[in-house]
Amino acid sequence: MTELLKNHLGGRWVAGTGAGTALFDPVLGTELARVDASGLDLRAGFAFAREAGGAALRAMSYRERAAMLAAAVKVLQSKRDDYYAIATANSGTVKNDSAVDIDGGIYTLSTYAKLGESLGERRFLLDGEAARLAKEPLFQSRHVLVPTRGLALFINAFNFPSWGLWEKAAPALLSGVPVVVKPATATAWLTQRMVHDVVEAGVLPAGALSVVCGGSAGLMDALEPFDLVSFTGSADTAAVIRSHPAVTQRSVRVNVEADSVNSALLLEGNAPGGEAFDLLVKEVAREMTQKSGQKCTAIRRVLVPEALYGAAAEAISARLAKTTVGNPRNESVRMGALVSRAQLNAVREGLAHLQAQAETLHDGAKHPLIDADAAVACCVGPTLLGARDAAGSDAGDRLHETEVFGPVATLIPYRDAAHALRLVARGQGSLVASLYGDDARALADTAIELAPLHGRVHVLSPDVAALHTGHGNVMPQSLHGGPGRAGGGEELGGLRALNFYHRRAAIQASTAALDLLA
Ligand code: NAP
Hints:
Blueprint: E1 4-5, E2 7-9, E3 12-14, E4 21-24, E5 31-35, H1 42-58, H2 62-78, H3 80-91, H4 95-117, E6 125-132, E7 139-147, E8 152-155, H5 163-175, E9 179-182, H6 188-200, E10 209-211, E11 228-232, H7 235-242, H8 245-248, E12 253-257, E13 262-266, H9 275-289, E14 299-305, H10 309-321, E15 325-326, H11 341-355, E16 359-362, E17 369-370, E18 383-386, H12 390-395, H13 397-401, E19 408-414, H14 417-425, E20 430-436, H15 440-450, E21 454-460, E22 479-480, E23 491-492, E24 502-510, H16 511-515
Parallel strand pairs: 1-5, 8-9, 8-11, 9-10, 11-12, 13-14, 13-20, 14-19, 15-17, 18-19, 20-21
Antiparallel strand pairs: 2-3, 4-5, 6-7, 7-24, 16-18, 22-23
Helix pairs in contact: 2-4, 2-5, 3-4, 3-6, 4-5, 9-10
Bound molecules: NADP nicotinamide-adenine-dinucleotide phosphate (NAP).
NADP nicotinamide-adenine-dinucleotide phosphate (NAP) binds next to α7.
């Protein structure tokens, strides 16, 4: 039997009482470890996090907590090799794709360590200026942001076991709020190991960081009024969380990052072979294949002027054809596996669902697998679909509404700029859209048109070709989240992320008392 990974709750390591759920290598099919959360005293563990962890964190200043994050960064950096080995085995990712998760997570944590330093020795934040409440400026109102007295529960998705933890934990811990993370079962090993390493290094106070692996039963029930929950995953589970009494009756604050049918838009007037056209082709192929398309921010719809449909289909397909797929341990492989058989089946079903309304321009099923047994490995080549003409792109509702969480995108022709914007809007709100062109005015105007529908607009022109951070890469300096079907959440965005973990209160007092808060 494989090792049963322990949970960390109530300041100690504790095994579940059940046999556990097995985690697998998605390429070799072998069992790696087991996780189980049955029999845990969640209420007592959550109380310890709130009382011991919360009190110890709040006793520190922002600068002290920033130093604590910097110490955690050092611990994680010293164990990177272990994390890469776990990612290869449990997520089936090639080294570059493991880096997006592992180094992306560590970078985000270190960014918050630096941002936190700038907040100094304070223990609460001021929000805006004082406002006069009476004729004379003697009695005023000033808003403050104070760390919430509860805990932050993170319910995370399978695709980012490292980054998904640290992009949330960094602002929470910096704010002085203890964290309980529940990673998605399929890839829980990496999250569990990172929490283990940081806890055992003793760089955080007891109760500041806990991990519960395995089932989610009882987690929401154990939440109390000042707690927070930050969820990343499917829209269906998001609906369960939003309708839980913890949220509807106890006002637990919720942030949701759900699925998203992100788009890339090549503006009119950019000919095949031009720099903007080439930027689009390169970015689409990269987004489709990085982490086998298992990124919430990946490009799913590619919009091009009607006349460029054939040229774009040809150029993107030519790039995809070069993608070698299979066992990530083989150096010649560029794209590894999906995380599980369940995901492989879901991608195949989603693809068939889209193919009813689209033609197949590049067929991923035809990619040979390198060093991997097709009967066992959860590997699949990248597939580019296409709506045949602009009328077809209007008719195909599935192309705009279905997120296939794998290496799949659809090329969609548009008639004119207004038509392109209408098509993008049919995604009903997304995490990110990217724009490609060389006319700064047109790019800026289109970015503002798209801003209400997206958490982030990534604008690519030839002058930033060598500098830009990537359509799907979530940078801690920028907002992550999106309106509508993307969940309506907001994460990151530099120090803005701290707002979620603080409560805002107005202090109405004499100017003399308010001056003491400054
Ligand atoms: P999922 O089934 O909703 O699972 C997400 C998390 O919720 C897992 O930890 C899961 O635990 C847990 N969970 C399941 N049922 C629950 C319940 N009743 N109560 C509380 N927690 C529960 O999502 P998924 O299919 O694994 O994840 C893929 C989806 O996540 C995709 O649609 C993708 O778009 C989205 N995603 C979004 C972002 C973003 O930032 N917007 C990032 C990554 C992924 P178990 O694993 O134990 O079931």
